[in-house]
Amino acid sequence: MALPEFSLRQLLEAGVHYGHQTQRWNPRMAEFIYGDRNGIHILDLTQTLPMLDAALQVVRDTVAKGGRVLFVGTKRQAQKPIADAAERSAQFYMNHRWLGGTLTNWKTVSQSISRLKAIDETMAGGAEGLTKKERLQLEREQSKLQASLGGIRDMGGLPDLLFVVDVNKEDLAILEARKLGIPVVAVVDTNCSPDGVDYIIPGNDDAARAIALYCDLASRAALDGMSAQMGAAGVDMGALSEAPEELLDEPTQEQATADA
Fold first, then answer.
1. What GO terms fall under cellular component here (predicted)?
2. Which terminus, N or C, of the chain has the lesser number of Cβ atoms within 10 Å?
């Protein structure tokens, strides 16, 4: 595997270059703006292209070193692609609502995750000995905790990198990461400030196609990092992928007897 490739055409087709209305701009993003059309700012994709590539490299390198990447995107159109990207690349996500203290008060969050796991075990065992009312209360608590913490239940500690869509909406997550010195990769639109973002991806943070593209590329970069990590550990990825075919090619005992 290699770092995922993408083209200027792909960015254009996904609408990455469309910013917000000119009156809603943040002057701190001026250097990344190419111009405006019909009252809408247009981002300079010749800058986005290498910056997105650099951000993907950071995602890859973090995972290759055994690090954890936390995907963060709680706006409606980002929820599914954020969760899919994290699950596909064996990483972690927050896509419901950022709980204050998720990073800075990890000890308390860990206790809530333990509570979720305990409820899951109880429900899996048929919730024996509980009344109908108690069971209903437990189901409600389980649903609430799963929505808030399901994406980080197996993280086991603080992440090594945040991948964020919409820095305005996820400002609390970025603030907590900054306090703890956790680097941040983020898509930054024309109405946002890039302050606090270590690896800026100037781009549209509202269009579903653009969000899907960022998430897909980030998950593929993480997968490439996993391949590198396994390669460094002496696991032959090629042998793993070829093994099933080799087994299929081997004649069965019945075929061997028939041939004889």
1. cytosolic small ribosomal subunit
2. C
